[in-house]
Write a structure and sequence with these properties.
Layout lengths: L12 H41 L7 H31 L4 H9 L3 H29 L4 H27 L7 H35 L10 H27 L4 H24 L29 H8 L9 H15 L4 H14 L7
Helix pairs in contact: 1-2, 1-8, 2-3, 2-4, 2-8, 4-5, 4-6, 4-8, 5-6, 6-7, 7-8, 10-11
Length: 360
């Protein structure tokens, strides 16, 4: 009876059921968010440990800073969301109606703060993959123009969503909210898919174009890491779009999964590379050395024969025929071998077995 005391008598049963569904979704989704954020904390801890304790320092400082900032902003977003949920069910938990009224009331700190942190997370995650795509594809601005437009669309969409939630209490129940949420999620999905496909396309085409650049199997682990990282984020974005369009209440939970996956995906990519789950080779870059995915070998504990191979300049990763011919000539002059092509194949085999990789 206490719960029903302050509920207006003119509310229909359908409206009351909707209120219960909204509050249940708000509470349960934030509990899921808390569990996922705890998993995220474990992932970032292991990743940073691998990055700082690795003997060969395979992860660049720039990527370490990015994933650290991404985690800090994501944690701030979680704290603001949890503060808002706590205010609903603790500070205003006298009745179901008081919870509902606070839930739909515009709150500047929680709403705008959560929106700002969400936007920053989106910029950090998407800008990282756009920057990597730009470097890998030869710094061609036209190639990254579509993903940049997608990112701008996502930022504008999220800004409109948060502004409407702050100024219009019942706007979150309208169909226009679904339109902007779908546009936001679709833009993020398009950015991830576009950049990932371009990076993989660059690897495949340059590998096939260079006769001496090595086989595609050399880059199999790199491609796998890129696909898995993109798939982790894309799957939840697709689910979020579908469930929002269908009006299914499960979108509460997919939104939380998408928010955490936005930071976990690049963190896992860095963590797996820091653990050595990739093969080093620069040859897919053509005539340039990429600074976004820069694979190189490092000498250490090698015999004099391997050190001599490193001195030939193999780790520069230049795959043009003229450069490869010069590489073979230099190696022949230093080692006086009868079969330079066979020796070059031995160099490539040694590179394929090396598990060190650097992301700058």
């Amino acid at each position: 009876m206490a719960i029903q005391a302050n509920i207006p008598a003119n509310l229909t049963n359908a409206e009351r059921a909707l209120i219960f569904q909204e509050l249940d979704g708000e509470l349960n989704s934030k509990i899921l968010y808390a569990l996922l954020q705890g998993m995220y904390a474990g992932i970032i801890a292991v990743t940073l440990w691998n990055a700082f304790t690795s003997k060969f320092k395979p992860v660049g400082q720039a990527m370490v800073i990015v994933i650290t900032l991404l985690y800090m902003v994501s944690t701030t977003n979680f704290a603001l969301n949890w503060l808002y949920t706590s205010s609903i069910f603790v500070s205003h938990g006298q009745s179901i109606w008081t919870k509902h009224m606070f839930y739909i009331a515009p709150r500047a700190v929680e709403t705008l703060g959560s929106g700002a942190t969400t936007t920053v997370c989106t910029i950090l995650a998407d800008f990282t993959i756009i920057w990597r795509c730009w470097k890998v594809c030869g710094k061609r601005w036209l190639i990254i123009l579509p993903p940049v437009l997608f990112l701008v669309t996502a930022i504008v969409s999220n800004t409109i969503i948060e502004y409407k939630l702050w100024t219009a209490p019942y706007w979150q129940l309208s169909n226009s909210r679904i339109l902007w949420v779908v546009l936001y999620s679709s833009s993020i999905l398009a950015t991830t898919v576009w950049c990932t496909l371009l990076i993989i396309y660059r690897i495949v085409t340059v590998t096939w174009a260079g006769n001496n650049a090595g086989s595609l199997r050399t880059y199999r682990h790199v491609i796998e890491l890129l696909i898995e990282s993109a798939a982790l984020h894309s799957i939840f974005s697709i689910l979020s779009v579908v469930l929002n369009v269908c009006g299914n209440n499960a979108y509460w939970y997919t939104n939380m999964l998408t928010a955490v996956a936005r930071g976990v995906a690049p963190t896992l990519l860095v963590g797996r590379i820091a653990a050595g789950h990739a093969r080093p080779d620069d040859s897919w870059e053509g005539s340039m050395i990429s600074h976004s995915l820069h694979f190189r070998t490092r000498s250490g504990g090698q015999n004099s024969h391997q050190d001599s191979m490193d001195d030939t300049g193999v780790e520069t990763g230049i795959c043009e025929n003229t450069h490869m011919t010069q590489l073979e000539d230099d190696h022949c002059n230093k080692k006086n071998v009868d079969n330079p092509r066979e020796d070059i194949r031995q160099v490539e085999d040694r590179l394929n077995d090396d598990s060190n990789v650097t992301i700058v």
